[in-house]
Design goal:
Elements: H1 32-35, E1 39-43, H2 50-74, H3 79-100, E2 103-107, H4 108-112
Antiparallel strand pairs: 1-2
Helix pairs in contact: 2-3
Length: 117
């Protein structure tokens, strides 16, 4: 998918929401009722309070780093522990971006031109 608008983020998206509409036995699916509800959200890093973002991530990621250092010393790393650390990091990054980075919502179908008849 190409996005012709300037993307000011230096981050790559890590998630996408897809909805698949299917018709039943030859009936056409009415996409017009769903098109206005299909939106995507972009983080506006060009308007972000980066000092606040760095502060939130620095303060909240430090305990995670401390736990990782302790895990290295204990030699008892399990997949569940790795999953827990990964979830904690993602939660912290979401908290920081939700707090410091404004979002912009745009209609997916209007901007991308997909699924037009």
């Amino acid at each position: 998918m190409l996005d012709p608008e300037i993307n000011y983020s230096d981050h790559r998206p890590i998630a996408i929401k897809c909805i698949c509409l299917t018709g039943q036995s030859g009936h056409d699916v009415d996409r017009s009722s769903h098109e206005d509800k299909m939106t995507i959200t972009q983080l506006r890093w060009d308007h972000a309070d980066l000092s606040l973002y760095y502060s939130i991530t620095g303060v909240n990621l430090q305990p995670v780093l401390d736990d990782i250092i302790q895990l290295e010393l204990s030699c008892s790393i399990t997949p569940a522990i790795i999953d827990d650390i990964y979830s904690r990091v993602l939660d912290i990054l979401h908290l920081a971006s939700d707090t410091a980075v404004p979002k912009r919502t745009k209609n997916f179908f209007i901007n991308s031109g997909l699924m037009r008849n």
